[in-house]
Amino acid sequence: MAENIGVCKLCFESKELRKSHIIPRSYFKHAKSNGQLVWVNEGEELAKLTNSDPKERLLCQSCEQLLSQKYENYGTRIFLDRSKISRCKHDDNLLVFKDYDYLKVFLYLASILWRALVSNRYSNMDLGQFNEMLRQCILKGKICIKACLRLDHFLHIYVCKIRDKSGQITGEQMRRVILDLNVEETRHPGDGIIYYMMLHGFLIVYHCSAVNDIQEKNAKKGIGKLKKKGKMLIEIKDLTDFDVLVRVFNVAVSKRESLKEPK
């Protein structure tokens, strides 16, 4: 038992640490419900078939419960429950999140990034002082840092749904592929840094930067920024719109048997 005692990454108290999921367990559970999931790391030539999900001793039991109750219960419903997502009445290429709550969605997705940033598994993703800013916002359930300073001034999150319009990869097969969190260096140091991953058929992009023209840059990529007010519209984009995803699924189909539809 003593070897499991350590400082919790969220509350900073010395307690017994649990084996925490960095990417929420719900994504693995759904991906494995009809067979083994396909785990892909960008840049690697082989995909992995797995029934396990990466865990690390990061959080105490109280903080595990906090993340679960405040963020993951809601995030699971809005991203994994198909009844919570509908087609836009005015545009068949758009989806609408039902019961959309900007603060909850933002902090839910931010909490996944934060866990990666403070883990050993993603040691190349440390953002220094920004990690602490994220920690405090997640712990308090707020994005306001100071009177005129907010977390979403520095962290911009974009989401889109990926489909293969050629029909070679079905929606069910798409949902069974997880693209691990990756880093993309921007062209200029002042442009910040980009992280991206794919979960349950959603491409999720984080852009850490104080630059205010990021929305315009990413609009060209077809990625919808989380809206602060009103309905959240999610673009349905084709797999071939993103070179990185084409590479990912070329790797994934090397495990063709795993992508077969369940009988």
Tell me what the structure shows.
29% of the residues lie in helices and 30% in strands. The strands form three sheets. Strands 3, 4, 6, 7, 10, 11, 12, 13, 14 and 15 form a ten-stranded mixed β-sheet that branches. Strands 1-2-5 form a three-stranded antiparallel β-sheet. Helix 3 (102-117) packs across helix 4. A hairpin with a 2-residue loop joins strand 12 and strand 13. The protein has one domain. It is of the alpha+beta class and 263 residues long. It contains seven helices and 15 strands.
Write the layout of secondary structure elements.
Blueprint: E1 5-7, E2 14-21, H1 25-31, E3 37-40, E4 48-50, E5 55-60, H2 61-80, E6 85-88, E7 91-97, H3 102-117, H4 129-140, E8 144-146, E9 149-150, E10 155-163, H5 171-175, E11 177-185, E12 193-199, E13 202-208, H6 214-219, E14 224-225, E15 233-238, H7 243-252
Parallel strand pairs: 3-11, 10-15
Antiparallel strand pairs: 1-2, 2-5, 3-4, 6-7, 7-15, 8-9, 10-13, 10-14, 11-12, 12-13
Helix pairs in contact: 2-3, 3-4
**Strand fraction:** 25-35%
Number of domains: 1
Low-confidence stretches: 212-222
Question: What is the gyration radius calculated from CA atoms?
Answer: 18 Å
**How far is the first residue's CA from the last residue's CA?**
44 Å
Order of helix and strand elements from N to C terminus: EEHEEEHEEHHEEEHEEEHEEH
Structural class: alpha+beta
Specify the overall morphology: globular
Average predicted confidence as pLDDT: 81
Number of strands: 15
Number of helical stretches of at least 4 residues: 7
Largest sheet: 10 strands, mixed
